[in-house]
Amino acid sequence: xxxxxxxxxxxxxxxxxxxxxxxxxxxxxxxxxxxxxxxxxxxxxxxxxxxxxxxxxxxxxxxxxxxxxxxxxxxxxxxxxxxxxxxxxxxxxxxxxxxxxxxxxxxxxxxxxxxxxxxxxxxxxxxxxxxxxxxxxxxxxxxxxxxxxxxxxxxxxxxxxxxxxxxxxxxxxxxxxxxxxxxxxxxxxxxxxxxxxxxxxxxxxxxxxxxxxxxx
Length: 216
Description:
The chain is an alpha+beta fold. It folds into two domains: 15-40 and 122-215, Alpha-Beta Plaits, CATH 3.30.70.1350; 45-115, no CATH class. Helices cover 42% and strands 16% of the residues. The chain contains five helices and seven strands. The strands form two sheets. The chain has a five-stranded mixed sheet. A two-stranded antiparallel ribbon has the order 3-4. It is elongated and about 90 Å long. The N and C termini lie far apart (62 Å).
């Protein structure tokens, strides 16, 4: 009997250029029992609280004035003055159009806040269980990759910026050939990204430059 073939793990394909190197992110694992690893939603307590306070104050003041008028008391001075002032304005005036445009922009901004997840600084991790969700802060991921890069021989200093779709690494080398340092960085950081356990690993872009002679 022949032994069945064992599945092989996906291999990260590197595409190295003269000024840097980049490769596509590791293939995303199919959603298993853990379910889809979506982005984390922000509570946005500050915008929601401010909007609630404005609506509550405005509606409370208006309700009080309407109740006072129903009780045969005169309307508040601010409402009479506002009504008289608005009666003199025309819809084609610049001030009216500016206020309408500002109100529309605020409404669009609030709608965007309501329908977008937010928390861009948190990268979702793969879900192995349905009742567990985990996320990794982008600064923490950048720190892990930076430590991995500093372990590469020839690297003097390195800066790492991790985004949702791309991780950019800029390193300075004080000895060894730049191509060799870049290749080692590709390998080390490739495994580093894989070990982070992200649901959608970002693409890696590596740039290596020579450290100036006076700083060596």
